[in-house]
Amino acid sequence: MVYICKQRNNQTIIHMTQGNVRPADMERITTPALAKKFIDEQIKELRAQIGDKKVLLALSGGVDSSVVAALLIKAVGKQLVSVHVNHGLLRKGEPEQVVKVFRDELNANLVYVDATDRFLGKLAGVADPEQKRKIIGAEFIRVFEEEARKQEGISFLAQGTIYPDIVESGPVKSHHNVGGLPEDLQFELVEPIKLLFKDEVRVVGKELGLPDNMVFRQPFPGPGLGVRCTGAITRDRLEALRESDAILREEFAKNGLEGKVWQYFTIVPDYKSTGVKDNKRSWDWPVIIRAVNTRDAMTATIEEIPYKLLHHITQRIITEVPGVNRVLYDLTPKPTGTIEWE
Ligand code: XMP
Fold it and tell me: Residues 273, 325: contact at Cβ < 8 Å?
């Protein structure tokens, strides 16, 4: 058996090559009817594969893992144990939405772990971007592993692998480990959407009744806000980042830019400048707005946000977000800038 592994969302995804080729005659899922057909088939297959055993899933709240969770809940209900690790670097409202949708509405067997203090403790004083990514990735595996060990009788690990992950996978390598988990925590894989393209995953997600802001979510890096709170992360700057990002998303949604612009977010760099607030000198951070369009994230162009809206967003951020005295709009395309700042 050959396995492929690749880095995605800061985790190593490993899957078997057997059965990993999308049949040439597989119809593209573009309509609710086709999505329903796929869901019905998958439910049968998942029940046959899983039987009365238990499945574990790391549920990030992103579209892929959310669709896998919703499919498995339909197929095997409480035999699915979903683990949502809040690393403290999620956007405003995200962990709450995962709990609301999966625990409250879909009645899922959801383990919610607030590991904010652990992650921020490990990241304290660490300024190097690669080091930050490594710490977040390693700590994620550690927290997930601890939760996996608390569960009894797990036989399967579900993953939100999608077809581009397989197609774009790097060198083939013989491997039996899963997602960086230790050898004694190896489970058989369940990958129900591994032959689907992203647009198909969204059609299936909608048919499964997941909310639009989950199904059509813009890309969000695995290390989350950690790469946008540049340099060594502090709680107050992270809070300024979370609040300014929430304002930007709210205004984009209100003004018809949600779903039109590929990726948009704020950055709060580890740098202060002089300003004036309430007739006093201030020494505060700038918020940088980034809004880009791209096909494949290899190159990117800048969204031409209407000036009036930029002014309104600026006004809201400088008045509503503590610790901020300036707002800048990053006009740099990729290249020469990358999309993220670190
Ligand atoms: P860059 O900054 O390289 O980003 O132009 C390209 C796309 O990749 C996303 N990105 C990441 N996604 N883990 C992820 O899962 C990461 O460490 C990471 N870094 C960048 C970025 O948001 C953009 O969509």
Answer: yes
pLDDT, tens digit, for every residue of 19-53?
A: 889 999 999 999 999 999 999 999 999 999 999 99
Q: How many domains does the chain have?
A: 2
Whether residue 342 lies inside any domain: the answer is: no
For helices 307-320 and 235-254, what crossing angle results, to 10°? 150
Residues 170 and 266 in one domain: no
Pocket test for ligand 1, best of 65, 134, 266, 340 (most atoms within 8 A of CB): 340
DSSP for 140-160, written as a single string: HHHHHHHHHHHSSSEEEEE--
What is the residue range of 93's domain?
3-215
Q: What is the pTM of this model?
A: 0.91
If we measure between CA atoms, which residue out of 128, 122, 156 comes closest to residue 54? 156
Do residues 254 and 184 share a domain? no
The span from the CA of 199 to the CA of 210, in Å, is 15
Using CA positions, which residue lies closest to atom 9 of ligand 1? 221
**Nearest by Cα to 259 from 297, 293, 290, 221:** 293
